[in-house]
């Protein structure tokens, strides 16, 4: 049995994934050959000769000319010829070729779909086995990006995957310790919640947290007086809750991120601040006579009401009067410049950024 590793994400700029896959097979089997459209079939023959022992020069002779390849492409029969080609090479030997395909869920929708379709058509032989390491939920989303949101991506992927092995969820505590998310800062707590909210994978967590740190790190130990007043408390709230959410949302779904920043979709903020353990964060936005449960005779207020006021004071605050559209929520004050401040933080052009 031969094993080959193929990183789909690295190759997703290729027009046709089958070429880069054959190149990886040739490289990892130490076969030197220059790839062109006119010799792609000959290369495939050389690769498979190396472990099948089959002499197939006569077979490929009719396939290797430029005119023949062009004709195949024009007549859209190249898939069937490749299928016939690989099947004939493998049928005389029991050895398997196992190709491990990684990072498919990170690829552009066009490339991901084309790769799946090419594999199904080009390598349809029981002795050629493909093993995909992928986030299936993300891959389904990728397929829908290609075919449309109403497309049944689950049923589509069932055409390609015969066996599914679900790996257990990793213990993220060690990863959190390694990247520093467990240092005890308020922003760390929000980062962990955002990671869970958007179901970030291990590869995304480090990128996400390092981006958040670059945006707010200078303020974590700051004792500056500018954070002692209500407008400073507002800035701190933005940096420790809003900025991490914006960074995470931009990584998770750019369309929802656009709606969020434009002031038309507060659901991500509602989802984050509605988490029960975020009650302490909500308390910073409440007056002393207000309470989420109306205890001790205090005025009953709802989370959604507070979160709506917060969202609108930042992302729908267009006032240009003397007060600058100032809105005071508990200890925090926001104004018409708050949105710009948040955008500067995530764009790494704020004085609080670390480079």
Topology:
Layout: E1 2-7, H1 17-28, H2 40-52, H3 57-60, H4 66-75, H5 78-90, E2 97-102, H6 109-122, E3 128-133, H7 136-147, H8 153-158, H9 172-179, H10 186-197, H11 202-216, H12 230-252, H13 254-262, H14 267-273, H15 279-283, E4 290-291, E5 299-300, H16 303-315, E6 327-329, E7 332-334, H17 338-346
Parallel strand pairs: 1-2, 2-3, 4-5
Antiparallel strand pairs: 6-7
Helix pairs in contact: 1-2, 2-5, 6-7, 10-12, 11-12, 12-13, 12-17
**H and E string:** EHHHHHEHEHHHHHHHHHEEHEEH
Distance between the ends? 48 Å
Estimated structural class: mainly alpha
Instruction: List the uncertain runs.
Output: 50-56
Beta strand count:
7
The major beta sheet can be summarized as: 3 strands, parallel
Q: Enumerate the strands of the largest sheet in spatial order, edge to edge or round the barrel.
A: 1-2-3
The coarse overall form would be elongated
- Residue fraction in strands: 5-15%
Report on this structure.
The chain is mainly alpha-helical. The protein is 52% helix and 8% strand. It has 17 helices and seven strands. The strands form three sheets. It has a three-stranded parallel beta sheet with strand order 1-2-3, covered by helices on one side. It has a two-stranded parallel ribbon with strand order 4-5. A hairpin with a 2-residue loop joins strand 6 (327-329) and strand 7 (332-334). The radius of gyration is 28 Å and the shape is elongated. The protein starts with a strand and ends in a 9-residue tail after the last helix.
């Amino acid at each position: 049995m031969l094993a080959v590793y193929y990183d789909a994400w690295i190759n997703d700029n290729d027009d046709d994934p089958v070429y880069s896959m054959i190149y990886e097979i040739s490289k990892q089997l130490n076969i030197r050959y220059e790839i062109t459209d006119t010799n792609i079939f000959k290369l495939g023959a050389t690769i498979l000769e190396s472990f099948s022992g089959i002499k197939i020069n006569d077979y490929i002779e009719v396939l290797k000319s430029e005119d023949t390849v062009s004709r195949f492409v024009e007549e859209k029969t190249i898939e069937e010829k490749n299928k016939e080609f690989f099947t004939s090479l493998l049928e005389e030997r029991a050895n398997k070729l196992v190709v491990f395909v990684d990072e498919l869920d990170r690829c552009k929708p066009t490339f991901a779909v084309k790769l799946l379709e090419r594999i199904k058509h080009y390598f349809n032989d029981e002795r050629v086995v493909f093993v995909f390491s992928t986030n299936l939920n993300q891959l389904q989303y990728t397929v829908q990006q290609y075919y449309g949101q109403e497309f049944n991506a689950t049923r589509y992927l069932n055409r390609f995957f015969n066996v599914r092995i679900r790996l257990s969820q990793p213990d993220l505590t060690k990863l959190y310790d390694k990247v520093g998310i467990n240092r005890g800062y308020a922003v760390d707590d929000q980062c962990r919640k955002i990671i869970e909210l958007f179901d970030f994978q291990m590869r995304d967590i480090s990128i996400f947290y390092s981006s958040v740190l670059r945006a707010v790190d200078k303020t974590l130990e700051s004792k500056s007086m500018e954070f002692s007043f209500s407008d400073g408390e507002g800035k701190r709230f933005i940096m420790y809750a809003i900025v991490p959410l914006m960074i995470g949302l931009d990584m998770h779904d750019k369309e929802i991120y656009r709606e969020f920043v434009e002031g038309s979709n507060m659901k991500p903020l509602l989802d984050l601040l509605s988490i029960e353990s975020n009650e302490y964060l909500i308390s910073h936005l409440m007056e002393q006579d207000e309470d989420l449960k109306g205890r001790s005779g205090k005025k009953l207020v709802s989370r959604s009401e507070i979160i709506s006021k917060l969202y609108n004071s930042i992302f729908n605050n267009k006032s240009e009067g003397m007060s600058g559209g100032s809105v005071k929520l508990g200890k925090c004050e926001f104004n018409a410049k708050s949105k710009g401040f948040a955008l500067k933080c995530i764009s790494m052009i704020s004085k609080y950024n670390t480079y």
